[in-house]
Amino acid sequence: MVYGIDYYPEHWPQERWAEDLSLMKDAGINTIRIAEFAWTLMEPSDGVYNFRWLDEVIAIAAEKDIKIVLCTPTAAPPKWLMDKHPEIYQKDEFGHVRGFGSRRHYCFNSSVFMEYSKRIVKAMASHYFNNENVIAWQLDNEFGCHNTVRCYCEDCSSSFSKWLKNKYGAIDAFNEKLGMAFWSQQYNSFESVVLPAHTVCDNKSSGMYAHNPGLFLDYCRFASDSVGDYAAMQISELRKAGITTPITHNFMGSFYDIDYFKLAKQFDFIAWDCYPNIAHGPFSGLPEVSYNHDKLRGYTNNKFWIMEQDSGQNGWNFMHATPNPGEIRLWAYQAVAHGANGLVYFRWRPCLFGTEQYWHGILDHDGIPRQRYEEIKQTGAEMLSMSDVIDNTDVVSDACVLHSFDNTWSHSYQWHAEGFDYNKILYTVHNSILRNNINCDVRDAEADLSTYKLVVMPAYNISSENVAKKLTAYVENGGHLVITFRSGNRDEFNKINGLTLPGYFRGLCGIDVINYDPIGNGGRSASCMIGKFTPNVWCDIIDEKETTVLAEYTDGFYKGSPCITVNNHGKGKVYYIGCNMDIDALAPLFDYICLGADVERADLRPVPGVETVIRKGAGGEFIFAMNYTDAAVYIPIERYYTDKITGTVFTKSIYLEPYGVVVLY
Ligand code: GLA
Ligand code: ZN
Predict the structure, then answer these.
(1) Mutate which of 308, 319, 349, 360 to test ligand 1's pocket (most atoms within 8 Å of Cβ)?
(2) What is the mean pLDDT of the chain?
(3) CA atoms within 13 A on the CB side of 32
């Protein structure tokens, strides 16, 4: 297993490098990731290259048998380049230049930047292509971070015109498919089509966005594709120079501006940057991290790396809490449980200067190894003894949640009701399943669904007859499917299809949605066989026809109307959930649905704050049980279990210390 450190030798005197690498070696570190922001050091002026310093670091690492993940440095274009070609800068939606002073200040559609990027990638590749110590290449750093996927510059405008022309062929087709008849927006040429930048009726503070929804969706797709084209250029330069080692990129967790299913296809494996210590939004904490791990695994349906794993107090202008002793180890196990087979800690030592002075890692500012160092040393040793589990077992799931980036983008522009958050809905479903000790994949509609016993499609609004056909076949063959409110209502052009809801899925669900109530953050009451609950955000009012009603509203003018139904179809079942439910209401519902679908679950009593993941394969079958709380937990058992990490045999109950982990067989 790759057990690594993100290292910035360029921030420290050369005399310190050997000591750093020796300390790493002693902690079991076998890999460092370097150079992703060091363009100016490698090309101090136009066309002048200097790799001496990097050769030196790589040589010292090689002496200690520490391998290298080498990065292309394009996330931080040099000042000399920006001064020479200011047209490379991004423009924001108001037309303001996003200038120099931090990083990622380039536009993916700048042909000038493409050329300069090609040149530095080629120079690095021809210098290092046969260096045996380099085991993988990382492109750039976190494509799209800091809101840099969507740019509104002149280069983007002309590239978007070409992208549209390529898609629609004729301008009349474009006008017709996207409904430009509304407000007299018909265009006479692709060249005259605008980017959906700030416009007259936009008012962010009151949540008003006025552009044509189809134009907005195409722009999101185009901007995402632009990142893909830029990545493809770098990969092609590396391969042309003779590089045969795997090429990867560090994706982000709670990030949705790039279609990661599409981007992931270009890489030999993917990695992501995992910061459990930072709250990312309305839902946060370790269950959200698990959702992100499962999402990342789903982008390739394969194992993945963590390229930056949280390891200390962190922040730019202020700091987040220091990890409790045991948490860094717990986060490592959480990643591995969900499918990581490479773990690289961010970062070795906090910098004494620059924007990230406060971003801690394994060491402190004074460079002295203390508790966090000892913790990664212990974790590294444990991981070595776990290699059979890591390499020879997989997360095998009977349940799967379907995610689509088209829907992410469409829902983000028109979010139906106050409080509607597609990503939160996906996360809530995923975690309601996990809470029942059940593994859950996150895939897209292209996935082979036949391996799943349960597929859940929350708010799958943009869809097609083809997707409906695929799901019909899945259910007819015995699959169980859950569809929710705001599904099947829009075509691929982000137009409402005019079908009776749930649109494309009406036949499958066997119901008609005859009215709906976007109640937003208000609440309704409802009850079902699992008890009373309080729907919020959205309520569908349903004519259940021949289906069985599982829950109904108990107040308001639609009191007595069904809100959850189930339809027998072929050998399978289709559940329809017509209202938004929180995790406490959804978890028991999924317990019931998963029982009916015979979905495998870990043979342990579910305990709040403890998550389990089942891994199986040639290496055996294991249950990872992880305590996300600061209190010790006992879980009663009815059979013997042995902990793979410590060899402890549990006979009556499993003991988990605060932030503790066991790997049971
Ligand atoms: C991201 C980046 C790193 C670093 C950390 C901390 O994940 O990839 O370069 O900036 O955040 O801010
Ligand atoms: Zn641009």
Answers:
(1) 308
(2) 97
(3) 27
Percent of the chain scored above 70 by pLDDT?
Answer: 99
Q: Indicate whether 438 pLDDT > 70.
A: yes
How far apart, in whole angstroms, are the C-alpha atoms of residue 19 and residue 258?
40
Residue 243 near residue 129, CB atoms below 8 Å: yes
Q: Which residue is listed with tokens 């930048």?
A: 197
All domains of the chain in start order, with CATH? 1-34+270-385 (3.20.20.80), 165-215 (no CATH), 399-596 (3.40.50.880), 610-664 (2.60.40.1180)
Contact (Cβ atoms closer than 8 angstroms) between residue 575 and residue 564: yes
**What is the pTM for the complete model shown?**
0.97
What is the spatial distance between Cα 279 and Cα 606, in angstroms, rounded to a whole number? 25
- Best residue among 139, 140, 314, 346 to mutate for probing ligand 1, ranked by most atoms within 8 Å of CB: 346
Query: Residue 406: CB within 6 Å of ligand 1?
Result: no
Q: For residue 20, what are the contacts with CB-CB under 8 A and spacing of at least 6? A: 7, 9, 12, 348, 349
The token duo for 70 is: 């080498």
Q: 29: pLDDT confidence band, cut at 50, 70 and 90? A: very high
Q: How confident is the model at residue 445 (pLDDT cuts 50, 70, 90)?
A: very high
Q: What pLDDT does 10 receive?
A: 98
Q: Calculate how far, in angstroms, residue 232's C-alpha sits from the geometric centre of ligand 2.
A: 18
Question: Catalytic annotation on 657?
Answer: no
Question: Is the pLDDT at 523 greater than 90, yes or no?
Answer: no
Cβ-proximal residues to 639 (8 Å cutoff; 6+ apart), any chain: 603
Residue 618 is predicted with a pLDDT of: 96
Per-residue model confidence as pLDDT tens digits over 274-315: 999 875 444 568 999 999 999 999 999 999 999 999 999 999
**Dihedrals φ, ψ of 61, to 5°?**
-60, -45
Distances (CA, A) of 472 to 479, 504, 522: 9, 11, 35
Active site residue 142: yes
Burial class (CB in 10 A: 0-12, 13-18, 19+), 324: exposed
H helix runs in 109-153, sequence order: 111-128
Amino acid identity of 554?
Answer: T
Q: Which of 623, 531, 502, 526 is nearest to 580 (CA)?
A: 526
User: Which one of 142, 237, 327, 544 is the catalytic residue?
Assistant: 142
Bond from prior residue into 502 cis (ω within 30 degrees of 0):
yes
Q: What are phi and psi of 292, to 5 degrees?
A: -65, -40
Q: Which pLDDT score is estimated for 531?
A: 86
The predicted pLDDT at position 545 comes to 98
| Mean pLDDT of all residues in 402-418 | 97
Question: Which atom of ligand 1 is the closest one to the Cα of 356?
Answer: 12
Contact 238, 71 (CB under 8 A): no
For residue 37, give the ligand 1 atom closest to its CA: 9
Query: Which residue's CA lies nearest to atom 9 of ligand 1?
Result: 141
* Cβ atoms 35, 57 nearer than 8 A: no
The label of the residue with tokens 């509304």 reads 182
Residue 601 — pLDDT band, cuts 50, 70, 90? Answer: very high
CA distances from 593 to 323, 401, 432, 455 (A): 37, 14, 11, 11
- Regarding the beta carbon of 141 and ligand 1, being less than 6 Å apart is answered yes
